[in-house]
Design goal:
This protein is an alpha+beta fold and about 325 residues long. The protein has helices at about 70-80, 145-160, 175-180, 200-205, 215, 235-245, 285-310, and strands at about 40-45, 55-65, 90-95, 105-110, 115-120, 130-135, 185-190, 205-210, 255-260, 265-275.
Amino acid sequence: HEQEGINWMVSEDMEPHRRVRGGAPAAVADDSPSKSGKVSLMTSAFNRPTCAKNECIAIEWSRDDQPVSLLQLQTFLSVCLPRWRTSLRRGKGTFWVAEDRGSRWEWQLSGRLRYAMQRSAEGFAGAAGASAIVLIFADGFEERDVQKVEADLQHYLGSTPPLSIPTTGSPGSREAYIAMLDKFVVFDVLSSPMMGNVSGDESAVLRFRLTGRRHFKIPASAYLGEDPYVVDVDGMNRELASLVSMSQGAPFISMGEGLEAATGRTCLALLWPLSTHVLLETDAMEVIDRFEETMQIAAKEADALLKRYFAHVKSCFCGH
């Protein structure tokens, strides 16, 4: 399908419903998706020059009563969607994420499960936060499979069970993830930007980023944005997240904010969920496995990025 031209449209209902501050929600059409996360199904026509009949199946879902958790989103993208890889053609969505409530995440999927994500720190520009997604499947996608996708959307994104943090030493705990991360010496673990006022959402995520400090033997207290380094570490991590998520096979890594404890500076962070909940427990080990796979991809990309972003630096302690 990647060799064929395809045009598809996302309905206007995919845009978040704009609200007046302090007032009632703006009126929406009667056929708009409900607040409860109910999935709506529609069949749309697509233009393909080589095909006589070009009907595809589009499944839409939205929610604006509360944000999705990073765990829900990570599991949906990393574990659930790959199950539909043979029929899934395109995807597009907007997400309001609990661990990054002030921002708006724009997501896209192209062929062979390559993802793209953009994070807007400006959020929803005064509108209430909301999440919405549309998935495009190939012609011939059967009704029973449509129902399974609807159930997956509700199961992974529409549910709101309480989250819990894995205990120390258990699979999926912060210590277990940090131990895996330590195998790749180019990454540093970050603190929450909330510091002492950390909510449940904030404590449910591992924050880290590519710095190369240990590789280049740069002190933790040195700010890499100033002389003698002057390295755009935020830009380097933004590019890394993009490269990883664009890799074939549905690896996905998200971005948010973190805090460098030694410098006291807020910075762009890579995020991975630590929390679990009962509806996703059957996928818990698969999410952990996906982290190691994702970090192996990230480490390969990191080598070239470090060489490029640090190419101008002459003062370090790495011996090179």
